[in-house]
Specification:
- By secondary structure, this protein is an alpha+beta fold.
- The protein contains 2 helices and 5 strands.
- The two termini are 44 Å apart.
Length: 107
């Protein structure tokens, strides 16, 4: 009886350790799109510890509603295997900030 218990416990411990190793591992990215007045925007990206910044002006519409620059970037990253994990927006002094969090399975 004791041998059966030891065998069952050892099988249980091995199953748990295999389950822990089988968890998905991800890379994460963060995109901040700050819509500013007069059609201007700022786009900040952090991917794998590398920060990039770009500034520009939307061609048409109100900056707060025309999210074309950030949507183009998210679509490009989606084709590279990234998936949108979550998003948020925040009213700021003189603009609106849109926050996007993406993840990609590690190879």
């Amino acid at each position: 009886m004791k041998a059966v218990k030891i065998f069952l416990v050892s099988i249980f411990i091995m199953a748990i350790s295999l389950g822990v190793r089988a968890q998905e591992k991800y890379e994460y990215a963060n995109i901040v799109y700050q819509a500013i007045t007069n059609g201007r925007y700022e786009l900040y990206t952090t991917i794998d510890g590398k920060f990039t910044e770009s500034k520009g002006k939307v061609d048409q519409g109100f900056t707060y509603y025309n999210l074309t620059p950030v949507m183009e970037l998210i679509n490009k990253m989606s084709q590279e295997g990234w998936e949108l994990h979550s998003s948020n927006s925040l009213a700021l002094m003189g603009g609106v900030g849109y926050y996007y969090y993406l993840r990609k399975k590690k190879a």
